[in-house]
Amino acid sequence: MTPTLVRNQLGADASAPADAGTRARDWAEIQERMLAPLYEAVYDRMEVGAATRMLSLGCGSGLAMLVAAARGAHVTGVDSDRERLALARTRLLPDVGWDDAPAHSPHPARRRARLLQDGDPAPAGADGSPYNLITVFEPIGCAAGDSEGLVPALRSAVPLAVRGATVVLTGWGPPERCATAAVLQVAARLADTARPPRTEPGRWRPTLRDDLEDVAARAGLKPDGSGRVSCPFGYADVGSAVRGLLSTGLFDAAVRATDRSQVEKEVAEALHPYQREDGTVWMPNVFRYLVCVT
Hints:
Blueprint: H1 20-31, H2 36-46, E1 53-57, H3 63-70, E2 74-79, H4 82-92, E3 113-117, E4 131-140, H5 150-157, E5 161-172, H6 180-191, H7 211-218, E6 222-230, E7 233-235, H8 238-246, H9 252-257, H10 260-271, E8 281-283, E9 286-293
Parallel strand pairs: 1-2, 1-4, 2-3, 4-5
Antiparallel strand pairs: 5-9, 6-9, 7-8
């Protein structure tokens, strides 16, 4: 699946910080779909279908859940971002709340989807039926500390799954295979302008070869295979590329160290090598996934 090019110009006041709602919409409308090939590859390998009871940790605005539900899966999503969850509700259930959907509803997703705000996830069904697939589609390995909250979340989720359930972790591929890595280096350089240099979680760092395996070991999971997926980032113009990339959170430390307008300016400059003659931006990337069993 090739990402759709989305046109979304920078706002009139580029120096104004994006509010949480705008940032969540930028993620849902511009950036999230860039990972669609990753979702599809994992679902193909896991043969996701009507027998799947999937728990999506860090489900964001729900695109991966929508794809799974379209394949017949029963899906529960958990995320701490209230704005992204609101968009997920609108995307999957525009008319009724997830937990209020009637069992006889003609809309198939309404019988198969639930959304939980942070906290510990609940069993897959009202009857306490367990999950057989746990997914983490928010890629790790590109920011300091980005897996710290994931390990306890996995430890809380695993008891809700069947014995031998599948857990899929995802992460960025090698920097030399990700054109976006060169642009993300702007985040690290600008964050370093702070005095003293900032070392808080969220600061960009190069992806390490065993990032996913390290998380699996700390969470008590047994690796059982892996794969790589091409996920090119395609944008209609530099403006939409800047908004999409900043919605990932990977530039937050840089914004705190300088200001948003400076970050936007330097990211736009870093994108020039990837801008094509028609004005579109195209950056080839490779992402990894690690298949584990509980």
